[in-house]
Amino acid sequence: MSHAIQDRPITMAPRRGSLSHARLPRWTPAAVAAGSVAAGTGIGLAAGWHSKVQWGMIAALLFVLATYALTTKVEGSRQAKDRVATSLVWVCFVLAVIPLLSLAWVTISKGMEVLDGYFLTHSMNGVLDAEAGGGVYHALLGTIEQVGIATLIAAPIGLLTAVYLVEYGGGKLAQAVTFFVDVMTGIPSIVAGLFILSTWTLMLGFGPSGFAGAMALAILMMPVVVRSTEEMLKLVPNELREASLALGIPKWRTILKVVLPTAIGGITTGVMLAIARITGETAPVLLLVFGTKLINPNPFEGAQSSLPLYVYEQYAVGTDAAVARAWAAALVLIAFVMILNLVARGIARWKAPKTGR
Questions:
Q1: Fewest CB within a 10 Å sphere: which of 27, 55, 86, 260?
Q2: Under-50 pLDDT residues of the chain
């Protein structure tokens, strides 16, 4: 009996389902995208639409619908929903990148017509706005000085405020500071300019200067620095603080040697975002700095110019030469912000704590 049971073959019950299922080829999204673009272009041409934005919207809609239909037929409805979500993310990414690339291309193509060494090293002194020639040196110098002074004012105040809110705050004072930081985040630039105009110029009697514009820019910069630095400090693990305090290190030294170096990359990024936000402001500069065609290296006395104000003034003239100078100055402004970002990234990487052995 036992031999009969041992000799009986063991059979497995058939599985009702399988872990493997049909999958679309990897090239399917690219093919669907190409087909959607072709179909959107054809529909736009057939309908007589001249706006390529309409063609792109139709192509995006066809891409999502075609992806859902193909995935549902081959892989099932559950996988189709996942692919639709991924497709929507890609569509939104493309819709965000296309205007950015278009703006960069137009600015570069139009700005390079005038941008050269002469343009960067000369001012508009003695040059009529309607005439060709002149340069942007006085505006570039004014922007560097005004943004630099604003950063020297706003960055330390914002950094110390964020350290207080994260490391020491917790009472009513911290709540009040947080509330006012939130309020300052939404202040329009013209309001900051009017505040400095009423206090520095009208009440105290000081004239137009780059320093006055820098103070208004610092007001706009501080809440951005506070918020970004606060979030970066919150990401530092508490275990690092506790380990340092357990060794008998004072709290201020723990913050200085452990917390800040750990978050230096994010802090630098936040400061650069704040600098990029104020570099293109025109209203405070127009109210407080006034603008000039001459080179004024002293930011504490006399009117100065700046790149955004220079762009506004030249574009307002409306002649071909002035508009060309406006595009070239806009390109210089973009390059200025990009160079600052690259320098800040390098400093952050250099100062970041080393994790390797």
A1: 27
A2: 1-2, 4-6, 9-19, 357
What pLDDT is recorded for position 11? 43
In the numeric block, the tokens 């063991």 are attached to 10
Per-residue model confidence (pLDDT) at position 17:
45
Residues ≥6 apart with Cβ < 8 Å to 174: 164, 165, 168
Determine how many CB atoms are found less than 10 A away from the CB of residue 263. Answer: 21
With beta carbons less than 8 A apart as the criterion, state whether 153 and 210 touch. Answer: no
Please tell me the distance from the alpha carbon of residue 264 to that of residue 271, in angstroms, as a whole number: 10
What was the pLDDT predicted at 21?
63
pLDDT of residue 353: 64
* Token code pair at residue 265: 């990359």
Q: Which residues contact 122 (CB under 8 A, 6 or more apart)?
A: 134, 135, 137
Query: pTM (2 decimals)?
Result: 0.79
Helices H, strands E: what count in the chain? 16, 0
With b for 16 or more beta-carbon neighbours within 10 A and e for fewer, the 5-37 pattern comes to: eeeeeeeeeeeeeeeeeeebeeebbeebbeebb
* Amino acid in position 243: A
| Per-residue pLDDT at 155 | 93
**What pLDDT sits at residue 138?**
92
Rounded to 5 degrees, φ, ψ at 130 are: -80, -10
- Within 10 angstroms of residue 142's Cβ, the number of other Cβ atoms is 27
List the alpha helices (DSSP H) in 48-76: 52-74
Q: Judge contact between 307 and 143, C-beta under 8 A.
A: yes
What are the distances in angstroms from CA 340 to CA 108, 171, 190, 241?
A: 19, 37, 25, 31
**Distance between CA 200 and CA 208 in Å, rounded?**
9
Task: Write down the pLDDT at residue 349.
Answer: 75
What span, in angstroms and rounded, lies between the C-alpha atoms of 87 and 63? Answer: 8
Instruction: Tally the C-alpha atoms within 13 A of residue 48's C-alpha that lie toward its C-beta.
Output: 0
> Tokens 């054809």 — which residue?
42
Confidence at residue 191, expressed as pLDDT on a 0 to 100 scale: 92
